[in-house]
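User: Fold this, then the next.

Assistant: Folding the first:
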Amino acid sequence: MAIKHILKLILKQKSIALLIILQIAITVMIVSNTAFISYATLQNWLIPSKLEEQQILNVTTRVFDTSVDVQSLIEKDIQAIENVPGVIAASYAGRELVLNSLGPGWTIFKDTKPETDYNVFGYFGLDEKGVGVLGLELIEGRAFYASEFIKGDEATKNAGVIMISDDLATSLFGDDSALGQSVYISRQRIPHQVVGVYKGKMLGESATYSQQPYHSGVVPEVIWGNRQRANYLVRVEKGLSERILEDVETALYHSEGRMVERVEFVARAKKRLWDGRSTFALTMAGISIIACVVTALGIVALVSFSVSLRKKDHGVLRALGASKGKVMWSLIKENTILVFIGLVLGFGLSILLYYFLMNNVRVQSVVEIPLLVGVAIFTWLVSTLAVYLPAKEAAKVSPAQVTKSS
């Protein structure tokens, strides 16, 4: 049957055709975004952290007694932790822990111009042992001088120097050297001079969430008072069991007025980072399956209804010599035209939903052309299977039935 004639049939029952197109478009919108989210989640799982995940601990504590001498507490804590068998070194962590930001993400700018875009990065305030605890490898510039380390409460002036990861250096300055350059942290644009560049590791939770896993910086600062927390990073010997977590926690019970909230391997923090997103991706996959089933049932119902209305037309075709296969094929071609229109509309809606999720829900997602092609083929197969049974019934209409009813 000619395409022109098929189009006339579609226009003849335009309400049913419109419903099929909308069903396909909505299904494509949901299924493609589910595929984007699942693919992005899988990609994140496969990104190497470049960390010794079973050798670095995050220790989170909260000081609830305002009369506690925090500086003295920190010194006692570090000494107590380092006395635990199996512990190599411990450092105060004043701003965030590895893959555990404990607050909003940090931003860094390469200048103070209002229009300059920012980078999200992991921002770590560490003491003299911090670089070693994280296992950072300096590849350009120098380490911090002993005189550059500062300690104090929130009123303490910033150190003014920073070491940044090579990925962050490239993102900020391209092929130019980052050494000696000024960078500006947070919306307040607090200036720091870059004195060293190290090999990037997956350190910051917000940076990883923002698809910039190796963007980070460390400053020689032990500034306490950040939400009444006294947190630590600890490096332990390789191969230790989780018993070390209990030992470290027990070692911190020497002081009153403070509670130990969490002691964990970085591996656990990394797993927690993906848990919520994988659950969301699985939920979306479930919604996608439901959407496909509803769409298939809807197409079956609509095509069956359409076939019943056009029973006479099919009988005439049979009377004019059309075979059963030709009648079935004409319905499948008609469905394919509707699917094509639905796919075009669905892809447009998919992109709109993608940007809405990215900008408003902060969902990790990525548009991949091969995924869109896969969704298109999948949707066409589902709709073709859904139209098969009604088409088969339509082909059974005999010319005698039409003649008799006339």
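Now the next one, as you asked:
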Amino acid sequence: MARKVAGKIGAGSGVALALAASLACAQERAPDSAPPEAAPPLSPACEAPAGDIAAPAMLPHFAKALRDRKSARILAIGSSSTSGVGASSDAKSYPAQLEAILEGALKGVDVVVENRGVAGEVAAVTAERIKSEVAREKPDLLLWQLGTNDALVRIAPDEFENTVRSTIRWLKANEIDVVLVGLQYSSRFSRDEEYFAIRNALQRVATAENVAYVRRYDAMRFIAQNHANLQMMARDNFHLNDLGYQCMAEHIARAVIVGVFAKRRPSGN
């Protein structure tokens, strides 16, 4: 059985995702795929335009695991936003909240999300760690949160891009799906050209490699600009608080579920 988490997402208070609209953002829906019995809720505080939340892509290996085994393993790797710095408990980190959302939406399956976040880590260090973590956990899907620390320590965008691209190709060769979870938004970075350069590099890689990309910066900026009364950040005004991690989990869940029911568009169409 999957781990139980104390922090359930605001059921009843959220607005159900318009799943059909979400699937329209993916390439094409598999004709023989049954939709989730209940779409995961998107809480009012976490609402953002679909285009600001994610650029979905198909997740064939994760979908096959759910279909064949009725279970799947997800490895969540990255830095402090994955480990949960700023959260009031481990159960409020985004991986723990994501597991609860997916098991609620994908009825009759067991989803395990392993949290392997290390605060302060840059992409090149995580990339080396991914190989040993994959050997240990044997995931069907890897969620890679990255970019913020690389921008802050001024990693060259070309170097960053090459690291991410080569790691994605290694994951593909090992039949592991990947979702890239992008840089966070903060008003202090809103005019930082080097921050934008890393964000743009990540988006280029996601597009070129046809992998799902969670537009964390865009979604967080939308929420900050349209729900100014909501506090999404911890006291240090850099890491997320419980609500910030809740929104992060809901947005990633949306990208994952859309990817499960997406299918590559036939050539010529």
